[in-house]
Amino acid sequence: MSSTKLNRLTRWGSAALALSLVPACSTSPGTRASAIEWQSQTKEAPKDDAAPAPEEAGVAQAETEGAPANGAVYEKSEAADAKADVAMPSPKQAPAKAAAGAMAPVESRREAKPAEPSMAMGRVAVAPATPPPPPPSPARSMPAGGMAMQQQPEPQSQGNSFTHHAANAFTETAKDRFSTFAVDVDTASYAVSRRYLNQGALPPHAAVRVEEFVNYFKYRYTPPEQGAFTVHLEGAPSPFNANRQFVRVGVQGKVVSRSQRKPAHLVFLVDTSGSMSQQDKLPLAKEAMKLAVKNLNENDTVAIVTYAGSTRDVLSPTPATNLESIYKAIDTLESGGGTAMGSGMQMAYKHAVKKASGSSVARVVVLTDGDANIGPNVSADAMLNSIQGYVKEGVTLSAIGFGMGNYRDDLMEKLADKGNGNCFYIDSYKEAKKVFETQLTGTLEVIAKDVKIQVEFDPKVVSRYRLVGYENRDIADKDFRDDKVDAGEIGAGHSVTAMYEVELTGEKAPLGTVRIRAKAPNGTEAAEQAFPFEQKMLRATLDGASADFRFALAVAATADVLRGSPSAQGWNLATAQKLAEGAIDGQTDREEFSKLVARARGLLGTSMARDGR
Known about the structure:
Radius of gyration: 25 Å
Number of strands: 18
Largest sheet: 6 strands, mixed
Helix content: 25-40%
Oligomer: single chain
Distance between the termini: 81 Å
């Protein structure tokens, strides 16, 4: 070897050695492998590192009951992973919900990207490429009496990303009597937050969306005798402020039995990239798909597309009755490679649109941790703009998230919103059964689309109001009757609940009018219904309200506290827990929630745990 080449190699070797000694430069920041290596390091940490408060020991129950006989355990992602989050503040809200895809793109972020300063749109710096395992998140400090503080420290940021939406403030009714928003039937936020709490950590504020907490639960709303839905209205005094009331707007969609629904064509779009190798990701996703297929009808069909470094057509459309072929295809799925979500999305939609018609259901079901960092289309806007024509032809989308450590909640929510569908998060086999046996296969059929709700309060009766949640579903009042403005969809059997906090003047008259505007599944023009909110719908005492009302209020209040809402400052979670416990009504999901509130109280501070007993 010539001396010139030898000197060149020596210089390169010295440079490489120097770089290896610099933090965040010892591994390649652009490689997927370094991210996976860090995840495997954090997973070796014992679960006891994030032990709950003493009084909460034993509250969280194992959620692997009914898991497959192969003994796979899906709850092994440790608290270190759960504490990893990046809050993504939302841009200043426009007066209207994005009508034609006007959505801020989410920058592609690789798991092992070095820290960098906050950029435009309020993005928060990402953690270094190879951080040490994060320490347990400190409990948020609470003043004496256990009152929620407006500013609370966030858990340490590492890899999960969420979009922050500022909580709705009180509105003077005399200045603006209308409150307008799109319906939301997503439940991902509750399942994500439950996972944080069960692993001994408070969820980041941006991960908590009040409406998704409230709509996670079933309420005994009477279904409509005719038409797509009915509206249920109720109100009662606030347990937190003697001068205020809470009112509930509940919408119940019509029920379509499994035998009555239209034939469905499901296209599973499965992320098989390297980050999906953990037990609570691809292995759990495979079991979830089997649950869904087992509950389909004889006229339904299934196709499977995967994406990693490249896209693969695993299973062409196959009758759902051919379980052996479908299960065999599912069992062949293995993780490895990068994440080309965009090209996979296009292939999945091409499959689905072939079956889309007024007489059948075509739905793409995305199963992923949301970490799309390779491919020409990496943002929700870019991906869905490329298949916008398929959406217009009736193809719907379910975005279903798995795992922690690099979970892209912000991307998953946008995919669901733009794809005329819904967003779920699977944290256990138990949740997989709920979503894939009931919520997905049982509600495949959309009964109404672009569903908007507008509440008009009477200034003579209501002096101030605020909508608790639905911040990212806001629609300009003037767009309520603009049928070109996109809104949410309601599937068969779905219910939607919204809670308002109001201040009354004392005038004994109707509080106002609730209007719902929606299109038929294949329609272009919307129909409108109006429902008066009569005084008789207000209960004299909170105890006199229905169990459903009291439980929904407990859930909304808990979520408002956990997200650090300024309006919830001073609220006591002991009160919310008591409300929930008094309204369990024999439902296991409600019992689980009551225990989660107890856990949250312990994490928020022992002073709150002692108060209100």
